[in-house]
Amino acid sequence: MTESLTPAQRAVGDFSPKLVDLTDNVLFGDIWERSELSPRDRSLITVATLIANGSTEQLVGHLRMAQQNGLTRAELTEVIVHLAFYAGWPRAMSAVTVAKRVFEDQQNTEQENKS
Questions:
Q1: Cα gap 63→44, rounded to integer Å
Q2: How distant, in Å, are the alpha carbons of 41, 45, 75, 92, 111 from that of 78?
Q3: Which residues contact 28 (CB under 8 A, 6 or more apart)?
Q4: Chunked in runs of 10, what are the mean pLDDT values of the chain (115 residues)?
Q5: Distance CA 20, CA 43 (A)
Q6: Which of 23, 27, 74, 87 has the fewest Cβ atoms within 10 Å of its own Cβ atom?
Q7: 98 and 54 Cβ atoms separated by less than 8 Å
Q8: Nearest to 60 by CA among 110, 5, 12, 105
Q9: How wide is the angle at C-alpha 97 spanned by C-alphas 13 and 31, nearest 5°?
Q10: Burial (CB count within 10 angstroms: exposed 0-12, middle 13-18, buried 19+), residue 93
């Protein structure tokens, strides 16, 4: 049953159904589907904004989504380096720690799937 739940439903569905509704239907159902920007561009903007705001909890899922939307690990790492000078060194260091963990987890999963 939990496999059919959206990430928002799994995270806060029992606590804030309205936030789940807005996340699933407005943010991801409308905003992310608009044709004026590609999903790749939206991911790049979102990752950069999350880093600049220090929102590392949300960064985990969006780094994964960014890769699904066509951004490479090298590009995402470069975003962090670039933002060190615009958003601040501590935020970049926090983001690189998160990215390193996400990329290592993905690499481990890929290796397990090959076995």
A1: 9
A2: 15, 13, 5, 10, 25
A3: 6
A4: 80 91 95 97 98 96 97 98 98 98 92 86
A5: 20
A6: 74
A7: no
A8: 105
A9: 40
A10: exposed
Does the model's pTM come out above 0.70?
yes
d(CA 14, CA 5): 12
Q: Tell me which residue of 98, 48, 43 sits closest to 67, measured CA to CA.
A: 43
The pLDDT of residue 2: 54
Residue 63: CB atoms within 10 A of its CB come to 26
All domains in the chain, ordered by first residue: 1-34 (no CATH), 38-113 (1.20.1290.10)
In 3D, which of 5, 3, 4, 44 has the Cα closest to residue 23?
A: 5
Question: Residue type at 92?
Answer: A
Residue located via tokens 């569905």: 13
- Tokens found for residue 60: 């985990």
93 Cβ neighbours under 8 A, 6+ residues apart: 84
